[in-house]
Amino acid sequence: MATAVLAESVAPKETPFRMRAIMAPLVAIIVGVFMVVLDGTAVNVALPQLVLTLHSPLTTLQWTITGYALAQAAVIPLAGWLSDRVGVKRLFLISVVLFTIGSALCATAQSSGYLVFFRILQGLGGGFVLPLAMAYVYRICATERIGAVMGMMGVPILFAPAIGPVLAGWLVEYASWRWIFLINVPIGIIGVLVGLVTLPALARQAAGTLDRAGVVLAPLAFAALSYGVSEGATSWTSPATIGGIAVGAAALALFIAVELRSAAPLLELRVFRSGEFVRAIIVQWVGQFALFGSLFLVPLFLQQVRGYGAFDTGLILLPQALASAVFMPIGGILFDRIGARPLVVVGLGLVAVATVLLAHVGITTQGRDLILPLALSGAGMGLMFMSLNTHLLNAAPRALIGRVTALTNALQQVVNSLSVAGLATILTSRLTTNVGTVRAALAAQAPQAPQAATSQATAGAAAALPPAVQEALARAAALSFDETFRVMVVAAIVGAALGLLLRRSHATQVSSEDSITETSAFITA
Q1: Percentage of the residues of the chain whose pLDDT score is greater than 90
Q2: What is the mean pLDDT of residues 187-202?
Q3: Percent of the chain residues past pLDDT 70, beyond the cut
Q4: How far is residue 398's CA from residue 5's CA, in Å, rounded to a whole number?
Q5: What is the rounded distance in angstroms from the CA atom of residue 101 to the CA atom of residue 67?
Q6: Quick one: DSSP state of residue 80?
Q7: Phi, psi (5° rounding) for residue 509?
Q8: Sign (positive or negative) of CA dihedral 248, 251, 257, 263
Q9: CA 327/CA 320 separation, integer angstroms
């Protein structure tokens, strides 16, 4: 493993760091990140319209989402080595160009097959953007301001998923689904032009020889695991779920064995020898699971139990997006002063309080009733999200940052899929139990009622039933969401408690000499 240290800043070390010096390159980076994250949620809203327009079944068009996610999971592990090989600026701009071209092609698709293929092309470009962006920002920023800058970059990561359904819903309803993709084209062009002029050409780190086994095994492992656990949301015993997890686990085991013996590994797994890194990434995973209580369950509750459309659901979720956008930079500034530990504890504490409030939703819950819990959840996410990510990078040798961001982002893809699948499993289990109780109670009153009252207790499915049965099913569904939210409360409390184990120090970055020494220690240990 090469130990040459990358350039630390755009300006010489003796020149005082000024925030205005990196604002232009930061804009180029944020534009790329925003586009990629936005498209991850915007297409969900367009699926019903795509079924009608392209005359294809939903099971086929679902691959516009699955294919995009799997393409990202496959290329993320390659980001570190390729950035060392061709340069982080060149690879970042190529990725944005590929994503923009994929967006333009998606807008012209005339069949579901072409749309799925073009979405995979989009994902191949988009998968590189986030790990490269995090490594880029980390390397062009001065030590004492890293938290503030990473906080600014984190705004689109949390804001885009919330604004995506609102924007997509408006475009689908008042324009065309094609504009979901067309809107990326001018934004992508502007981002590339700004990046060409403003992004600094950082010195490359010697990439070493190509880890051929790793190049094959890493994409296979992370893509198969992401697919397998995402299919678990439907059934944990289906061939797709078992096959995906089995292939992914086997490939991951082989990948770990190969990487630990490689002199030039694709992903530097030996970073897990750092106790602080291990503690930080475990807190991150638990925190991710806790955050999905509002990111995944609330939209589902609003649409399935309360009958809101995607556009109205997006509007209701705006307080969460706005709160995270406000508190993300605040969290970054505070990180530079007090470190990650108090921000993680307070942030997940706010998420826990918000989830307790959400655990009291019912059939009469209105959008205004969710403003406070969603705002608290957004504030908590804003305080802890990028602070914890920055702390995680600080726990690794600086010379390995490119490889570490690729590793952490690849693992996040799997954890995100596992979180959704886990929550869907818990919710489905509670729905089956609670709706089953309702059916049993109705059986003594009307023999036909239990046949109609299925476990799919959504507003649409229950529309043809008598009002009393509709209300009973709605209450059972709301209770199921309440019980699932309580699991999220436990996850948030556990995450906050684990946050107390994080190191007190803040914004600690090693010097060039220390980075060489520390990196060598990881490699030779």
Answers
A1: 11
A2: 87
A3: 84
A4: 8
A5: 17
A6: H
A7: -120, 135
A8: negative
A9: 11
Joined together, the tokens standing for residue 318 give: 């705006």
Digit-coded pLDDT (tens) for 351-408: 999 989 988 888 888 888 889 999 999 899 888 887 888 888 777 766 667 677 778 8
Please name the residues in contact with 266: beta carbons below 8 A apart, sequence gap of 6 or more: 77, 78, 80, 81, 211, 214, 215, 218, 259, 403
Q: How confident is the model at residue 118 (pLDDT cuts 50, 70, 90)?
A: very high
Kindly list the distances between the CA atom of residue 504 and the CA atoms of 124, 290, 394, 483, in Å, as whole numbers in the listed order.
38, 23, 12, 35
* Distance of alpha carbon 500 from alpha carbon 349, whole angstroms: 12
- Model pLDDT, residue 16: 61
pTM: 0.75
- The overall longest dimension of the chain from CA atoms, in Å, is 83
pLDDT of residue 35 exceeding 50: yes
| CA separation for the pair 231, 246 (Å, rounded) | 13
Q: Residue 29: name the closest of 232, 215, 194 by CA.
A: 194
Per residue in 43-52, pLDDT tens? 877 877 888 8
Tokens (6 digits) for 396 = 């690794």
Task: Give the whole-angstrom CA distance, residue 474 versus residue 363.
Answer: 6
Residues 6+ apart with CB under 8 A from 371: 319
pLDDT at residue 3 is higher than 60: no
Predicted pLDDT of residue 491: 87
| Interaxial angle between packed helices 340-358 and 318-338, expressed in degrees from 0 to 180 and rounded to the nearest 10 | 160
Q: pLDDT band at residue 284, thresholds of 50, 70 and 90?
A: confident
CA–CA separation, 201 vs 367, rounded Å? 48
- Which of 374, 358, 378, 348 has its CA nearest to residue 284? 348
* Closest C-alpha to 297, from 399, 349, 365: 365
Helix (H) or strand (E) holding 312: helix 310-316
Radius of gyration in angstroms for the set of CA atoms belonging to the chain, rounded to a whole number: 23
Contact (Cβ atoms closer than 8 angstroms) between residue 288 and residue 494 = no
Residue 426 above 90 pLDDT? no
Residue type for position 139: R
Instruction: Report how far residue 29's alpha carbon sits from residue 423's, in angstroms, rounded to the nearest whole number.
Output: 32
Q: Is 382 helix (H, G, I), strand (E, B) or coil?
A: helix
CB atoms within 10 A of CB 366: 10
Phi/psi of residue 280, each to 5°? Answer: -65, -40
Q: CA 465 from chain center: how many Å?
A: 38
- Helix runs in 109-211, H state only: 112-140, 146-174, 179-182, 184-198
